[in-house]
Amino acid sequence: MALRLVSDFDLGKDVLPWLRAQRAALVAAGAGGGGPGVLENNYESLRVLNVERNGNIIYTYKDDKGNVFFGLYDYQTKQNEHLYTFEKDLQVVSCSVNRERTLLAASLVQAAKEGRRNELQPGSRCLTLLVEIHPINNVKVLKAVDSYIWVQFLYPHVESHPLPENHLLLISEEKYIEQLHIQVTQEDGNRVVIKNSGHLPRQRVAEDFVWAQWDMSEQRLYYIDLKKSRSVLKCIQFYADEHFSLMFEASLDVSLSDSGFKLVNFGYDDLQDQEKLSKHPTLCVFTNHTGSLCVCYCPNFDSWEQITYSVLYFHKGHGKTFTATLGRVDSRVTKGITFLSLDYYVAVYLPGHFFHLLNIQHPDLICHSLFLTGNSEVIDMLPHSPLQSLSGSLVLDWGSGKLYRALLNQSYLLEFLWNTRLDCEKLALLHCVLSCGRDPRRLEAKIIQWISENISACHSFDLIQEFIIASSYWSIYPETSNMDKLLPYSSLLTWDTEIPGITLVTEEIPLPLMKVHSFKGYWEKLNSNLEYVKYSKPHLHYNNSVVRREWHSLISEEKKGKRRSTVYVRNILDNAIKVISNLEARNLEPRLTPLFQEEDNHQRLLMGLMVSELKDHLLRHLQGVEKKKIEQMVLDYVSKLLDLICQILEASWRKHNLHPWVLHFNRRASAAEFAVFHIMTRILEATNSLFLPLPPGFHTLHTILGVHCLPLHNLLHYIDNGVLLLTETAVTRLMKDLDNTEKNEKVKFSIIVRLPPLTGQKICRLWDHPVSSNIISRNHVKQLLQNYNKQPRSPMMDKSSFSVEFLPLNYFIEILTDIESSNPALYAFEGRDNVDAKFVEEAALKHTTMLLGL
20 to 30 A Cα–Cα from 583, which one of 153, 319, 429, 610? Predict the structure, then answer.
């Protein structure tokens, strides 16, 4: 299953055994009725009422006499506690307990049984009570009205000492919400009583709403009111004191009836008609620590063949409306759609039909979200009973009384990655797996294994490129906010291929109007996201275009013999040294591949330039982050890029069991070397288009394998098209390892003529052969004649040693000798040991006759 539900709480396992033990203890003691353990055959009445902010779970049950018991399961200690008993046959609407467990608020209605007298106050349908339970003492009636009331204590983030004042929300079916302020005091030791029980101050929080949702973790209230037939979403943030603030208003293009009324996350409500609720539009709000704000909405079902739902990404400034085809026409939709919050994702689940995992951090491209349909695993992924998504990826199954923590199933996603055939699913799964963040080294090894087996299986995107970019992004993303706006998340900018079974329409939406001017925590991040949507056009994602221009400029200057400021170049190369040191410090295992064994100044320049440019990019846009931290993040990011390339190469090297002797040319290539050469070529393609640095020594190893594996004409084609780069290390080894057979001479000569002039001159001196002698001689003559100015010749020159039969050549040699003699230190002839004088004479004669047309 793509989703793994880890059980945090189960009524049947965590509560029922305790109740039975309580019952057995009372029976053994010969106690009568009325105790907390009196529970005969009425186990089906046991159900969860509420989950408080600290994780404590309030539940209720009835004994055989109809008495209502309230219990609490402590999430930290895993212990149960009896809170209170109403010795009347009533039905519970809602219940909440304060943080100190000294006050209990409950809302109850008359049990629906014929012939039963009214246990409540005359003329009232619903009774809302506030009870002192430390110890059990006074009961105060808060409301006795004809409409349902829901209750919820506020849980502020404060020290562990008891609070002098508690705050209780009352949510009325008559569409208003008010806050009660309850002062408490201690009497007779630890006895806690309500101080102002005669008059509890009340404050109206909201009114005329048609929908409301409680976020117990963040203590926020979301509600929608209708203004001139326009739905407006509002959010109220409650603070540690009695203070609360309206944080934002946002227009919603959703269809809600003024006569409707629905609450989300205010406890289990079994009083409303469930069939009627299933036809009510489903709507919920999800946020996470990155400052995201999503509204998920599904209107009433009007077709058995397809279903439409919308997700409004307010933190991105747009919304998407999806239309999913229901694969099994014969199977009607009997259960409502479920929206679940999963940190960086929102899951949309329709039992028996589909499962859609939506990427809320990067929702622009549909290929970054996973849509599954049409198989039994999807159909049976989650329980079919009503599920409620609480804060922090908690999911409550009201029907069974189980509380789960929903997690992406990394093992299943990896297995699915191996088996799927669709490119869109491969891409979405790759990002899902990497976002899980558990044991990244092992995870990367498994993905690399999959890449090596499927290197040519993707047609819509480059597997290696996507893996390097995505994995590097997730390695640095958690360190600070706003990284999703500044670092590339994917190598893809567009996606035009259809996703089977689903279509979508994207629309811009009005941004929320923030109602406060000072932000902290989540609200600061949300406001930053909204500001980015307003003002940051185009996007600020980093790319290497500036690095590309600067690198080409430096290389061009080097070829022309020009030199940039020594300090500037030294700083760039120092950056590269820091990256390599950072990489080596994180990777203590010895490497199998012969990388990082040579200078490779070109790659070091690219590495250093990327560090410099990325650092400047982050310093410009990351406000309030220390420069030292940014510098370390940049080193970590570039190190990660290089490390992933090394990991891919190491995995291929290990898989094919290559040994260091592959670096020698005097042997035939094996199938294993062909496979590694292919992987290296694919790595080169992936990095070239993004202009990413490669580990020093990569090009040398790639070229050596190329010489081994390719026929000469293919080899030269790869060299001429820039796939293979002739490094000085590789060519030096080639000249030394290959003997001078006719075939090898052809290889050597073909490579020498393709070398840059300066490198070519160095390499020629290593090859004792007439061809190299010719090249050395011609280069020397060229150098002599470049700045030649005709001057009177010295009559004292000794001509006997240069005399040949061909007079023009005789004259030419005299000129060269004259130039050399004029400045011996400047024109000293290097490489004399490898010069065949007779060969040079014949070559020069032949060349002259050709020029003269003789």
Answer: 429
